[in-house]
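The passage that follows is intended for readers who have already worked through the single-chain material. We present the inputs for a multi-component assembly, then the predicted structure in tokenized form, and finally a short commentary. You are encouraged to pause after the input and sketch how you expect the pieces to fit together before reading on.
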Amino acid sequence: GAVVSQHPSRVICKSGTSVKIECRSLDFQATTMFWYRQFPKKSLMLMATSNEGSKATYEQGVEKDKFLINHASLTLSTLTVTSAHPEDSSFYICSAQKVAGAVETQYFGPGTRLLVL
Amino acid sequence: SQQGEEDPQALSIQEGENATMNCSYKTSINNLQWYRQNSGRGLVHLILIRSNEREKHSGRLRVTLDTSKKSSSLLITASRAADTASYFCATDSGAGSYQLTFGKGTKLSVIP
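Having made your guess, compare it with the prediction:
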């Protein structure tokens, strides 16, 4: 149990287009989902915290109009990179926090590799 | 915000040897967790240690926590080639927040 999926796993797009990444908790409900970004050989940087039914909370320096987050249900959050540029190329990872679970019941997706040409 | 700092940044050992990785953090924590990441893949949770614990074991893993020094160590005993991966520590501050702050990671290479 406790599986988090991300789709797509890999995407290549042209500069200026928008890309949507889905994060789903497959066998549990998640009150909160987190979106991270990871550059090659670097650590995970928290981008935003997404709570079901409310607006996401963005970390300092993360443009909310650039990275649109929608958390429409307890099992799905989406991250849309709008008007993507080459510098947005990165590995995006989501995690889902189990409803009423302890901190260790936060499960990570396999990541989405975005390449913007 | 980035908090944890792992050292070494990279570690190369022979199969069968023990690997020790350290993590330091700056602010008070509620829990500290260690994760593993294979190249280009997602994170795998390894072990959690709470702020009131000093040591924890799980299989070949041993984690220590020294809150006075704001540091933790992860020891992998009898390493295997399959342990080759990047290892990250992550802290949370509690107070109802599940936000994790990750360290920079240690890239471990186990040579067969």
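Commentary: The radius of gyration of chain A is 13 Å. DSSP finds no helices and eleven strands in chain A. How closely did your sketch match?
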